[in-house]
Amino acid sequence: MVSLVYNNLNKSPVFNLDLTHLSVPNTFGFMSIKQTKNIQVVPYNPEWPKLFQFEANAIKEALGRNCIAIHHIGSTSVHGLSAKPIIDIITVVVEPTNTIKALEPLGIQYRGEYNIPLHYGFSKRTTIDVNLHVYPENHPEIELNLLFRDYLRSHPTEQEEYVELKKRLLADQTSFIQNNGQFVNYTLRKGDFIRGILKKAGFKRIRMLKCSDETEWDAAKYFRQTYFFDKNNTVDPYTWTFNHPEHAHLILYEGTEIIGYAHIQFWPQARAAMRIIVIDETKRNKNFGKTFLVLCENWLKAKGYTSIHIESSPSALGFYEKNSYIKMPFADPEGHEGAACDIPIGKIL
């Protein structure tokens, strides 16, 4: 149940939800949530910029010359906007892998990439709560977050819409369920609003994400069914891979439009298989296929994979050969065989 409580410092309203044991409907009947989940959205606190600056100074000192720039982002960076009392920070660095040990003395712990390839996510939960997002220079998420922040700063109507969305989500108990992923629905259900703001702000960068919210999963299902399984007059039999740790489902954005999809399987011995990679028909012959393939390769290489393997159709072979793929045994560790016409190719990363 959502209750309206008060902040002890300024007696301002705080939207709070506390789940200690909640049964909620899902596909199979009811799901039981036993752990306590407490999410607060509080009125804007003028101390937030000062808290950011305090943390930013410590981070800059810890990273030294590795730190290129540091930015206050998220709702706490927008004057007047209600927010969870957590300071979100982006740090742009020369070498992200060097930041993990450097930040540990500050109590800032590495948490993983989440749904963003080549993103280094950190958090600190002490007297000041911090979410830190580390990126290499020119990563599209940097521009995305700054555009979102700056647009809200200068558009009070959209600020109010964002606050109302947060209130509606807090009033819906299903917003606090975490289904087969790293985010609760409260976070995921803000995705369409954020994409709408980015479109208004003119965001046009190419970016790759792991599927996370409903809009992205719907796009993945559409690409799979339309471009592969409809051709065989069958329903996609591999949706079980959506929640499997050995499979990654990636989408390619052009600005706020989803234009591509890829399915990668992780194999033992630092090998990976590209099961599907496709660009929407309306966006083909514009170099997006090559861009998407290179992003996948760079991500896999950063994760320690040394080779990528594909069973190419004859019609797609020329595309892969132009991108330095050569004939190479597919050697599926589970022994599955592809279509007789497919050509096994690969690339050393």
Question: How would you summarize the topology of this molecule?
Answer:
Layout: E1 2-6, E2 13-19, E3 22-26, E4 29-33, E5 37-41, H1 48-63, E6 67-73, E7 87-93, H2 99-103, E8 109-112, E9 120-125, E10 129-136, H3 140-154, H4 156-170, H5 185-188, H6 191-201, E11 206-210, H7 214-229, E12 247-254, E13 257-267, E14 271-279, H8 288-302, E15 307-312, H9 317-322, E16 326-327, E17 343-348
Parallel strand pairs: 7-10, 14-15
Antiparallel strand pairs: 1-2, 2-5, 3-4, 6-7, 8-9, 9-10, 11-12, 12-13, 13-14, 15-17, 16-17
Helix pairs in contact: 3-6
Please give a structural write-up:
With 349 residues, the protein is α+β, with helices and mostly antiparallel strands. It has two domains: 46-202, 2-Layer Sandwich (Beta Polymerase, domain 2); 206-348, Aminopeptidase (3-Layer(aba) Sandwich), CATH 3.40.630.30. 30% of the residues lie in helices and 30% in strands. The protein has nine helices and 17 strands. The protein has helices spanning 48-63, 99-103, 140-154, 156-170, 185-188, 191-201, 214-229, 288-302, 317-322, and strands at residues 2-6, 13-19, 22-26, 29-33, 37-41, 67-73, 87-93, 109-112, 120-125, 129-136, 206-210, 247-254, 257-267, 271-279, 307-312, 326-327, 343-348. A hairpin with a 3-residue loop joins strand 9 and strand 10 (129-136). Helix 3 crosses helix 6 (191-201). The protein starts with a strand and ends with a strand. The model is unreliable at 1-36 (pLDDT under 50).
